[in-house]
Amino acid sequence: METILTKTIISGVLFLLLIISGVWLRKNGEPYRTAIFTIHKFTIVALTIFVMLIYINHLKTFSFNRTGFILFITSDVIFLVAFISGALLSFEKIVSYQLKIVHRLVSWITILFVPTIWLVCH
């Protein structure tokens, strides 16, 4: 139980840092400030690695029902779209209004999926 609580707290803190840095980037506008942009990038990399370790642990210990498995796979796809769209936004030549909308939308959907998966799978 302690391990699950610790991992939840760590991933929650990383997730909050990711949201705060993302909102900060959006509020300051382009060109993005290097320090905040770097914090945002490092946070997403750390969160991705940490969440992948949690996923692997969950796949070994939990037996998912159909709904949990579908939510799990869907969240992976949404997270991947958020990650890729964010990576594309870091290139100045690719930045477009539609890509920014996609990134913001899937980021908020990811935020909604986290507690949903937690409730269904635990």
What can you see in these coordinates?
With 122 residues, the chain is mainly α. 85% of the residues lie in helices and 0% in strands. It has one domain (2-121). The protein has helices spanning 2-28, 34-61, 66-89, 97-121. The longest helix is centred in the middle third of the chain and has 28 residues, at 34-61. The protein is globular, with a radius of gyration of 15 Å. The mean pLDDT is 78.
Secondary-structure topology with pairs:
Blueprint (H helix, E strand, L loop, with lengths): L1 H27 L5 H28 L4 H24 L7 H25 L1
The number of helical runs is: 4
**Count of structural domains:** 1
The oligomeric state of the chains shown is: single chain
> Mean pLDDT score, rounded?
78
Determine Rg (CA atoms, Å).
Answer: 15 Å
Task: Bin the strand percentage.
Answer: under 5%
Question: What summary fits the major beta sheet?
Answer: none
Shape: globular
Q: SS-based structural class?
A: mainly alpha
Task: Give the SSE order as H and E letters.
Answer: HHHH
Brief account:
The protein has 122 residues and is mostly helical.
Task: Output the keywords.
single chain; globular
